[in-house]
Amino acid sequence: MTWRIELVGTRQPSVIVGGEGALALLAERAAMVREAGLRTFVVTDENVKAAWGGSMAPLISGSSGVEGLRVLSPGEAGKSAASAAICWDWLSKAGARRDDIVVAFGGGMVGDLAGFVAATYLRGVRLWQVPTTLLSQVDSSVGGKVAVNLPNGKNLVGAFHQPELVVIYPGFLSTLSASEYSSGLGEVVKYALLSDGRLLDVLETKTAAILARDPATLSSIVEQCVAFKAAVVEEDETDRGRRAILNLGHTFGHALESTLGYHVLPHGAAVSLGLLAALAVSEVVVGLPTDTRARVVRLLANLGLPTRMPGLTFEPILEAMGRDKKATAAGIGFVCLDSIGAPRWGVRVDDETLRRGLKAITP
Ligand SMILES: NC(=O)c1ccc[n+]([C@@H]2O[C@H](COP(=O)([O-])OP(=O)(O)OC[C@H]3O[C@@H](n4cnc5c(N)ncnc54)[C@H](O)[C@@H]3O)[C@@H](O)[C@H]2O)c1
Fold first, then answer.
1. C-alpha 140 – ligand 1 centre gap (Å)
2. 340 C-alpha to ligand 1 centroid (Å)
3. Domain extent listing, the chain
4. Model confidence pLDDT, tens digit, residues 225-249
């Protein structure tokens, strides 16, 4: 089964295809491009190449295969201005033209970096995203946000550059580490809370298939997440309003990650705890019924995500949240949930209520 979603109404349209047939479609599109005399320039990282290098073969142009592939060291450190400069140099030496295509083949790190290179080289070349982590399949490959990190913070330099094609193959998820898979599950639960209750029901009833990484189950779940994100992006491509709802749980999550350390708290764990804290805040501020949080605690626990974090010191976390809020001071505050499928953004929340949110995740 292959599915297709079109993102229109954005500055450049984006076609997103997913499912078991997605890789064959990618090879087909690559052959068409080559027949038209154009080239594809693939950016990946070492882990993805080791696991899925064979699937990149149809994309790599040039008889030696070398000129069409750039392999980065894995990890967030590679999402840097220095890596972008290496890629610009590579493209210019290869004589890449505006109608050639940069292909981001990897997780969100590769997607953001290669996307940023595509947005900036020659003031913008074509971009395809081939996301290989659950997080990048449900979130970062869709919507056109691309960026690199600076020493002073993540994603401080970036652009909006829609991929013309996103190819989502569920089989890639079979080789992900447990921690990386959980990172994506945290985001999936976020989408289930933001969208109507159907996805939440699926997650509750198909937990075993999800944990077994059943490709058909995952393909359908990813499709629902992507459909939701695409609709939000169509409404607010440049993140000036409703797109903020995609940050549900992330104000707490980012503050927990940066305070406790990214190696202590994996991203999925931070999102899981952040969602629960945001639900506790929503109970106080907008009257979310308390049984919602109990339901989400059960779901997250069944999916193997943490629901409590012992020993949290609140003040540094609140300070980190304050810094995050200043970064989005254009009027967008906290994201709350009135009920499942009914998010509200830009909500002003005082520190006492934020402390109540943290208490909800501290044993
Ligand atoms: N642009 C956006 O809208 C957006 C949204 C959310 C997150 N992000 C960004 O995404 C990044 C995180 O993305 P991520 O979680 O995908 O991390 P990642 O790209 O660093 O991948 C995580 C790890 O998994 C490995 N990996 C990737 N695919 C694999 C596979 N199929 N099998 C085995 N190993 C594989 C990678 O080598 C890496 O070690 C962050 O930089 C974040 O800022 C961007």
1. 8
2. 27
3. 2-175, 178-359
4. 999 999 999 999 999 999 999 999 9
